[in-house]
Amino acid sequence: MDQGAVKVKRDKKITWKEIKRQKTLLIISFFVVIYGIIFYYWPLTGWIMAFQNYKPAKGILGSEFVGLDKFKFLFEDATFLRVIRNTFCMGALNLLTTTVMAILFAVLLNEIRSSVAKKTVQTISYLPHFLSWIIVAGILHDALSSTGIVNDLLLRANIIDQAINFFAYPRYFWPIVAFANCWKETGWNAIIYLAAITAIDPSLYEAASIDGAGRLQKIRHITLPGIKPTIMILLLMNIGNVLNAGFEVQYILGNGLVKSVSDTIDIYVLKWGISQNDFSLGTAAGIFKSAVSIALIVIGNQLAKRAGEERLF
Amino acid sequence: MKKKKVKSSAGSKVFTVLNSLFMIAFIVITLYPVLNTVAISFNDGIDAVRGGIYLWPRKFAIKNYQTVLAMENLITGAKVTVARTVIGTVSSVIANALLAYVVSRKRFIFKSQLSLFWVITMYVNGGMIPVFMLYRNLGLTGSFWVYVIPGMIGAWNMLVMRTYMLGLPDSLEESAQLDGAGYMTIFTKIISPLCKPVYATVVLFVAVGQWNSWFDAMLYNRMKTEYTTLQYELMKLLSSVMQQSGNAAAASERGSAAAAVTPITVRSAATVVTMLPIICLYPFLQRYFITGLTIGGVKE
After folding, report:
1. A135 shares a domain with A230
2. Do A49 and A81 belong to one domain?
3. Do A23 and B107 meet the contact criterion of CB atoms below 8 Å apart?
4. Of A73, A133, B28, B244, which is most buried by a Cβ count within 10 Å?
5. A5-14, A23-32, B63-72, B120-129 — which is least confidently predicted?
6. Chain B within 8 Å of A22 (Cβ-Cβ)?
């Protein structure tokens, strides 16, 4: 109580003088907050549409409220349930494979002694990150086409005797997407693990060498435990993004033949909301995605707390 | 050191060999598809349909590039893309830097509230439909500014800058204030020059994002061909390749009498043109994005 009163008093004392002094900062803040409200907070009011039978002619204020009908429709729609499964499975598969690849690449790159070789490999490894998904999808399409390199190699090795149309079979789609993500992001994601490896105390490695540890043993007992906090925090940060990882590649590479496994929540929103003009249904699907994402972040955070690891908040 | 050399046993040698093989495989898998695209882009169109082109064109032709450079929609797309990259990047860096400067002032009365206001935007957003409606109501759809204004301030870039600014010594600001400098002078004359590395980082991130985006062009400016972007045009080319894979006749639609180009080769040439600027630039900017990622990844 007492302390609070003192604090308030002290704040009050500096307030007027400080406000004047900080005029510039306050003016900038004012404009920035207005901007933030318009572009980030105002769209949240659009969530009302999910509980209405929204008609553009009547607007948000005039449209009829239908409660949870739109959500009911979503969860009775077999397509939407499949779409949730696709988004979640592809997101999880991507997160898992890209993380493992990035760690593997970072650890192995760190073992290269020649700094020129190391630098060259690393520079090349970033390249795909800077290419757009359009380009990556195009490249992938070329590589996997009937005359592409993959079929070419498989035919030459006599593993298959007729070219496979990889984009025509649902069973190939998820692995293709996971591979595309690894191809694009391995080098980029490894940057942060490499930085974490550099921060490991070199004397640990020396001590291990004296004890006769081999290189694999050093990786297992020093490098990997050393970057464990980084791995945990990055996994945490990305768990909330699992549902966000499903739009561009799937949209570009998806086709009628693989629709059952390629369509994601965002594509569903786009199809219903923008193309079919059912804004209410699109918004409801979007809310579902946001809610699950936030739940995933909170769950991840709790798990990390229980494991005694670093947390986001 | 010497001891280590002696100790590099058979096991260690096997490891080195396997590791080198892994890295070579990694480089081949990374580079081959890109080089293959370049090879196809220099190949005769109809010949390319047969496949079997690897790292070198089989029937050399520059017709694909002539076609690409004569395609009006691609030229428009290139102009718009350059404009959005330049204008979008400059405005975004200035806006984010100003905001980061404000929230990194230790005596600023609303610094924690203002930070929280932006951190929340990283986790909660209205979603595609409400955002689409907002832009439409604001008159941003069907205009160039939809590429610039909505993404101008972003929490992640702002926080990277803030972290960097918080690392600068307070005494800089204090001594300048004693000399009578106002907050704007301190920002432009003292803080900004010291923040060049982190500004460069954000420039890189924003510019690459602008250069590579296509979804906004499709969603907001589908009907406005004058605001199309390079990547969106590339996407249309890719769809035509995917729909008519191997159908060389589709190319004659372009009116090129010789029909020596096909969607496959034209798309490859357009891809090369689109990725060239980035491929030429990124190796020189490595230290900037490494700085940015390390700052951004460590906390918040």
Report:
1. yes
2. no
3. no
4. A133
5. A5-14
6. yes
**Which chain B residues are within 8 Å of A238, Cβ to Cβ?**
none
Q: Which residue, chain included where needed, has tokens 């149309």? A: A165
* B249 has a pLDDT exceeding 70: no
Q: What is the C-alpha separation between A267 and A24, in angstroms, rounded?
A: 44
Which candidate from A25, A247, A283 shows the least CB-CB separation from B183? A25
| Mean pLDDT in residue range B75-101 | 97
Q: What is the ipTM of this complex?
A: 0.88
The confidence score (pLDDT) of residue A14 equals 61
Cα–Cα distance for residue pair A252/A268, rounded to 1 Å: 14
A311 is a domain residue: no
What domain count does chain A have? 2
Determine what percent of chain B is predicted with pLDDT higher than 70: 90
| Domain co-membership, A270 together with A155 | yes
Among chain B residues, CA nearest to A192: B294
Per-residue burial over A76-99, b = 16 or more CB atoms within 10 Å of its CB, e = otherwise: eeeebeebbebbbebbebbbebbb
User: For chain B, which residues make up each domain, given as ranges?
Assistant: 63-300
**Distance between CA atoms of residues A310 and A230, nearest Å:** 9
Last residue of a domain, one of A65, A88, A109: A65
Q: How far is CA B217 from the centre of its chain?
A: 15
Q: How far apart are CA A67 and CA A10, in angstroms?
A: 49
Chain A 175-204, CB below 8 Å of chain B: which residues?
A: 183, 186-187, 191-192, 195
Q: Which CATH superfamily is domain B63-300 in?
A: MetI-like (1.10.3720.10)
Among A236-245, B121-130, B193-202, B246-255, name the one with the lowest average pLDDT: B246-255
What is the model's pLDDT at position A99? 96
* Domain carrying residue A85: 69-306
| Better-predicted residue by pLDDT, B295 or B187 | B187
Q: What is the pLDDT of residues B1-49, one digit of tens each?
A: 444 444 567 888 899 999 999 999 999 999 999 999 999 999 998 888 8
Last residue in a domain, options A65, A84, A117: A65
Domain membership of residue A312 (yes or no) is no
Which among A108, A214, A282 has the least Cβ separation from residue B19?
A: A108
Residues A257 and A114 in one domain: yes
pLDDT tens digit sequence for A273-286: 888 889 999 999 99
